[in-house]
Structure formats: structure tokens, C-alpha cells
Write a structure and sequence with these properties.
By secondary structure, this protein is α/β, with parallel strands linked by helices. The protein has nine helices and ten strands. The protein binds 2'-deoxycytidine-5'-monophosphate (DC).
Length: about 230
């Protein structure tokens, strides 16, 4: 790479560490990191709080009627220099990771109007390049012209164990089986939905990190960045 800023799109399955890798790559390159899943989670949190989604069932009419009231954006958190997700004036970075949000986010993310809104916000963020964005449709829909596209995956048991460890460390009482079931269900939902289903872009390179350390993953991505 010759110093020009590029767009790096990272898509893939749930809970395979996309955001962790994307954040670290952005830090190394001095790029902006955007966790697009956080935006879908924030909209889901709004829906949960307002009775618009319940047990995975979305009230479409109510969601569309409220869409103009849902303001989702990122703000730098000076304590750790992360871009935290905000919903209507409130930092919801922690709350969006709760299992209840995970259990309701896929049906909310499948609503076309929600996707149109969030995709256009994401495309604006990429105007200046120098961005690493992770999600499900970044290389296929948001930035089809991205200079580097990575499709990340890992075996379901490995992903479930990582997510279980992460939530338990935060003090959430969760069962491993419930988490594993949620991960498989989200994959199935994300891959089979009508709107922008999760799929590998034809020109994406696959990173299966089931047996890789964090450092090995970073080196792998940085090596591909250097070849752009
Ligand atoms: O990356 P994540 O697990 O935090 O994403 C939460 C959900 O949001 C995921 O199950 C699917 C949806 N999502 C999406 O549909 N498109 C994106 N670009 C990012 C996430």
C-alpha cells in the first residue's frame, strides 16, 4: 500500500471476532472503525424499550412510524478512545450487548426501511475513506467498491465459547447452550433474509480464525492490506 487511504470491509458470521479485529486494524492504520452491528443493535434497543419488538416479532407499522425519531450515531469516548454508540442522546454501548438485544436484532435488521436508513448513514461515514467497517453486508451492499474485503468465520462452538466468556466476564448470567443456539439462529436468519442476506462478496478473502490467535489474525489482515 502506498499511503493512500482505503476502505476495508469485514463481513462474516455472528461472534467470530470481527469487531475486535476491525478495531485493532483501524488503530494500527489510524483509520476510523465503525461497528455497523452496533447501529442495528441500537435500533433494536429502541424497539424493545418501546414495545415494537417482542420475542423476535416486529411490529412493522410501529417501527416505520417511529423511524424518524430514532437517532443513532457514534461519539468518541475519551476514557478509552473508542467510538461508542449513542441512541437519542444516551450512550448505549453496554446495553446493546445484552442477550435480549441479540435475541431480537435479526428480525429488526431484516426490515428494509431500517436497512435503507442505516446503510445511507454508513455510506456517508465512508466518504473520506480511511475506514474499517464490520457487519454483514459491508462488502456486498454498503461498500461494493471497497479496496479490501474480508469474510470472517469460525466454528460455531468456538464462537459460542468466546461470547459466553465475554458475557460472563461482564457479570451477565447466561447459559452456554442458549448462546450457541442464538448464534446459530442469527446466522440462519442473516443468511436467509430477503434484504441483503449475509453472503461472501465474490472478491472477498476468507479468514477462518477458529484456531488463530488475535495476533495471527492481525498479521494476516495487515499482510493483505500491504498488498492493496
Ligand atoms: O455484528 P453484530 O452481531 O453485533 O450484529 C448484530 C446483528 O445486526 C446481526 O445479527 C445482524 C445485523 N447486522 C446486519 O444485518 N447488517 C450489518 N451490516 C451488521 C449487523
Amino acid at each position: 500500500m502506498n499511503g493512500k487511504k482505503i476502505i476495508i470491509a469485514i463481513d462474516g458470521h455472528s461472534s467470530c471476532g470481527k469487531s475486535t479485529v476491525a478495531r485493532e486494524i483501524a488503530r494500527r492504520l489510524n483509520y476510523i472503525f465503525i461497528d455497523s452491528g452496533a447501529m442495528y443493535r441500537a435500533v433494536t434497543l429502541y424497539c424493545l424499550r418501546n414495545g415494537i419488538v417482542d420475542k423476535g416479532v416486529v411490529n412493522h407499522a410501529a417501527l416505520i412510524a417511529d423511524l424518524g425519531k430514532i437517532k443513532v450515531y457514534f461519539k468518541n469516548n475519551p476514557s478509552n478512545n473508542h467510538n461508542d454508540i449513542w441512541l437519542n442522546g444516551e450512550n448505549v454501548e453496554d446495553e446493546i450487548r445484552l442477550l435480549e438485544v441479540s435475541q431480537n436484532v435479526s428480525p429488526v435488521a431484516a426490515v428494509a426501511e431500517v436497512r435503507h436508513l442505516l446503510v445511507s448513514l454508513q455510506q456517508e461515514m465512508g466518504n473520506t475513506k480511511g475506514i474499517v467497517m464490520d457487519g454483514r453486508d459491508i462488502g456486498t451492499v454498503v461498500f461494493p467498491e471497497a479496496e479490501l474485503k474480508i469474510f470472517m468465520t469460525a466454528q460455531p462452538d468456538v464462537r459460542a465459547q468466546r461470547r459466553f466468556d465475554e458475557l460472563t466476564a461482564k457479570g451477565e448470567k447466561v447459559s452456554y447452550d442458549e448462546i450457541r443456539a442464538n448464534i446459530l439462529e442469527r446466522d440462519r436468519y442473516d443468511e436467509t433474509r430477503e434484504q441483503s442476506p449475509l453472503r461472501k462478496a465474490d472478491d472477498a478473502i476468507v479468514l477462518d480464525n477458529s484456531a488463530m490467535t488475535r495476533k495471527e489474525q492481525l498479521d494476516w489482515v495487515l499482510n493483505h492490506v500491504s498488498k492493496v
